Amino acid sequence: MKLKAGFITHSMGDEHVLIATGDAAEKFRGIARSNETAAFIVECLKDETTPDVIVEKMCAEYDAPEERIRADLGKVLDILRSIDALDESK
Q1: Domain range for residue 80?
Q2: What's the Rg (C-alpha) of the chain?
Q3: Is residue 62 part of a domain?
Q4: Torsion over CA of 22, 44, 53 and 3, rounded to 10 degrees?
Q5: Looking at the DSSP assignment, which residues form a beta bridge with residue 9?
Q6: Residue 12 falls within a domain, yes or no?
Q7: Which pLDDT score is estimated for 63?
Q8: Which of 12, 37, 78, 83 is the least buried, fewest Cβ under 10 Å from its Cβ?
């Protein structure tokens, strides 16, 4: 899975946003704001990856139980699916 082409990210201080451009803006028009954890996940999705790899990276970055990390990842992935931001073709 990976972030679809046409979605760009921007971070400024504590503000993290995901913006649809080009063809991606046909299905989602707007800006998705996120916290630091969601922004970390989106950064991981800039390259082809798997949920397990993202969990490993998050466990190394954050002091939280793996179950909580998996739950948080699931919520962020669901949101990204809802705005058609994920390419899960592989």
Answers
A1: 2-84
A2: 13
A3: yes
A4: 0
A5: 18
A6: yes
A7: 94
A8: 12
Summarised one tens digit per residue, pLDDT across range 11-69 is: 988 899 999 998 888 888 888 999 999 999 999 999 999 999 999 999 999 999 999 99
- Considering the domain boundaries, does residue 65 fall inside one? yes
Number of domains comprising the chain: 1
Contacts of 3-11 with CB under 8 Å at 24 or more apart are 3/42, 3/45, 3/46, 3/80, 3/85, 3/86, 3/87, 4/84, 4/85, 4/86, 4/87, 5/87, 7/85, 9/39, 9/42, 9/43, 9/46, 11/39
**3-class DSSP state for residue 54?**
helix
Residue 90 lies in a domain: no
Residue 88 predicted with pLDDT over 90: yes
